[in-house]
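Q: Sequence in, structure out?
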Amino acid sequence: MSAVRTWRADAPFYLCALLWNTGLGMTYPLIPLYADSLGMSGVAIGALIALPVILQIAFNLVGGAITDRIGGRLMVLAACLLMGAGATTYAHAAGFAMLIAAQVVMVMSRAMFWPATWTIAGHLPGERGLAMGRLNAMTNFGQIAGTFVAGFSIAIAGFERSFLLLAGIGLTAFVAMLRHPPLSRPPPGEAFAPLARYARLLRLRPMLFIIMCAYISALPFSLSVSFYPLLFESYGYSHEVNGSILALRGIGAAVIGLLVARHLAFSMKGAVAVGSAVTVALAVGAAGLTSNLALVSLLVFVVGAGSGLMSLNFQLMISEVTAPADRGSANALGGSGWGLSHLTTPLLMGVLRDHAGIETAFLVLGALVLVWAVALASLDRWAFARR
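A: Exactly. Output:
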């Protein structure tokens, strides 16, 4: 009965995650396709996606430290409001400066939302892996719905109304989170000295390994909001098909999360990390080799499964190697790998697309991720030698 009561009490939190991620899923095709419709080059689109992430990385760390002090609920509420504001700005943006301003607001929303929700899930009563699995399921189901909705919304209503719909979803997520009762106060920790806390966390050997895992976990997400839609458009797919294919990334991540959340163990961290990275590398590279709709759909599903498994893995590692009082800061620091991926992947892909073509860009990126997998295999023993 307690598990039922816990699930019901926390249902508004999971509903908020579902709704916010539905909005996030809408941005995957909306933002790059809108920028492309304005005639922006590959480098400009990459800059639009990547440059505001510099602020996201910095605010991610600040937000993680604040989460340790005040809890995650207020941070999630702020993230929902920022999503609404960013989407509204996008709806009225016609030039690069306004697009950048809108994207800054959107990445600030992401910077607040991820560490806060990971921290809330880590503090919920019950089995930690199950709570993380539920959160990741809501995350991915929301993104699946969002990409479907965006594809059809663009075709039926156009870009401006689609962004306004996104703003409404963000505000609905805010209302849902208001109904979630605050958790007990965060466990007492050291005085509010975020720089000292981050310095101490960085001295933990596993943290570098975790950041590298988070980078690969975020890479398919980075492609979904930048160059996956443009690759599919170059293959001649319609906006509706484009959104449907992107949704398969979320489906793959959700399926793998539901299947393995209960069974993923800390002892499996190295093998899971390397296997996930290899899976992502092969699926990303192969996407540039074929325009066959069935094969492309399968590859996007596979890349979602690989990145979803990596997400669960690095979240579990954070919860195992850090104290509860440091959980918000640790999630933000580990999650900085997400920010670095969002910064570097679109910029690299923009340059490669303009100079070598988009198919070659995916091939090169897949090869680089394969090298990253080898680096993870080499780093694993060093990072966890003392455990």
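Residues 205 and 385 are 9 Å apart (CA to CA).
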